[in-house]
Amino acid sequence: MKIKEKEATNIWETISNGSTYFGRYKKHSSYRLYLFQVIFLFSLSLSLFFFFFFAYRRRWFTFEKAAVSTHGQECAEIGVGMLNKGGSAVDAAIAALLCEGVASLHSMGLGGGFLMTIWDAHNKTADYLDAREVAPSEANENMFHGDPQLAMFGGLAVAVPGELLGYWEAHKKYGKLEWIELFEPIISLCIKGSIVTKYLESYLSSKESLIRAEKSLAEILINPTTNSLWKVGDRIKRPRLAETLKLIAINGPDIFYNGNMTDNLVKEIRAFKGIIKREDFVNYKVKWRKPIKSTIGNLTVYTAPPPGSGALLTFIMNVLYGIIPNQDNRITWQNIIETFKWAYAKRTKLADPDFANITQVLNNLTSVDYANMIQKKIKINETSNDPTYYGAITVPPDDSGTSHVSVLAPDGSAVSVTSTINQVFGAMIRSESTGIIFNDEMDDFSSPNITNAFGVPPSPANFIKPGKRPLSSMSPTIVVDKDEHVRLVIGAAGGTKITTSIATAMILNLWSGYDIKQAIDLPRIHHQLLPMTVQYEQGFSTDILNYLSNIGHNVTTYTGIGSAITAISKQNGEIFATSDFRREGKTAGF
């Protein structure tokens, strides 16, 4: 592919190159001096405007003691409210997640599950909680009979939710506030209604036919007065969910997993031809696991073990450490793209460690020696379009949806947590008795009779088994410095683009001198091996894209927004928090 027009790499480059326009005026003697002066003064004024505008925005995101970054409009303030009351980082994260289940109802909620990385500043230790959904006891690898739609829509797509029990177990271990305090502002938000953003409106519009076809969703997503979908600035109220949250706040998770609520949930899922039984709720357990730990230079990275994808993130950073940034940006991005391809080849071998022997794969992905070996295989002036060259013989499914919350507390503790119901609005069904939207997490498993569009067979390591957790791209990550102080809290939403977007932001922020907002705002590039295509955002460097194309890469633009990051960095005592503009998120702190 040949790029026809030169595009600015980012807004900073655009502003700094503004003077090139004046050169054109100088070449034409017909322009009078006063016109040049007017243009100069106008440009100077515009430059000053941008300077002060961005300086203002930068101050807005800078805090001294603590910060919370979320995707939901109301959720960062709610999380900070918990910190102001003396709550822990985990308290703030749980409250923010409960809020996200209302504000980002298309992405997450009590009908889903999450992965959480925790930094305990008091004990200088990292912890990790897996509250991922699991396959029902009656599930089997042939349950969809080769029909991928059954894994995406309806009751058969629903896995056993882990979200609520995850909140409870995290709070038991790390919470300071009373359980009920975490729910109070969210119950109020359900009654008042959460604000519809442009981002949410776009997803409502894209799913309109499905929403109208399912009355349980139409009940909350369609304005009863106009019979139209809710618009930007409207408030979506969740009165039924408010009542459910009141019961959970008072009674704890047992009412959900082993009470009257359980029977109603099972009845509703089975009414949509699902196979979940009461015993599946009763027997659900979260998993406390050791986070993946890696030392990269003078920094230590803690991230998500399988079924999360933190091992791929660790591998990417280990391979690239020491060889980027290169003085030639084209070579830097060739190294990055090739590393992405090697990483996603390894993804085909990952799965729930309780059901598959992935010890050797994990050892390789976290080994510096193995990373160095792969580093030597990367060529700066050529690529391969054969997935088997990189070691991929099968492919796991794409995942989607999700929301991410990043928290840094005044005591230095931190939480990075990603939650999901998988596809937008999950299985496209809602519990009318509780107001909860159900996940379609069974679609994150591989199925033996469903070969992907590129003719590559599915990954047996990720086949369905009762009680098994499906593979996920979620990679909640915390980076600490040599003094064991938090340097970066980061994570993302966005399916298979999660891992590459986090890696890119970390590379730019930790190694390349960009502040965290710049690192997140810059146009991105992505490769997941299949499709065998470099995907880029509009505004990415034309020079780099042409180089990649000339050495053999297929190059195409992103569809959709890709991935949306929330992050908090801390350097020299200054806390800098940001939420990706791609999803209209919010930050708050003090």
From TrEMBL:
Active site location: 402
Binding-site residues for L-glutamate, renumbered to this chain: 132, 420-422, 444, 472-473, 495
Transmembrane regions listed in the UniProt entry: 33-56
Superkingdom per UniProt: Eukaryota
SUPFAM superfamilies assigned: N-terminal nucleophile aminohydrolases (Ntn hydrolases) (SSF56235)
BP-aspect Gene Ontology terms: glutathione catabolic process
GO molecular function, one term: glutathione hydrolase activity
Gene3D superfamilies named among the record's database cross-references: 1.10.246.130, 3.60.20.40
Any Pfam family: G_glu_transpept
Keywords (A to Z) from UniProt: Hemostasis impairing toxin, Hydrolase, Membrane, Platelet aggregation activating toxin, Toxin, Transmembrane, Transmembrane helix
Gene Ontology CC, one term: plasma membrane
Sequence similarity: Belongs to the gamma-glutamyltransferase family.
Listed name of the protein: Glutathione hydrolase 1 proenzyme isoform X2
Species of provenance: Apis mellifera (Honeybee)
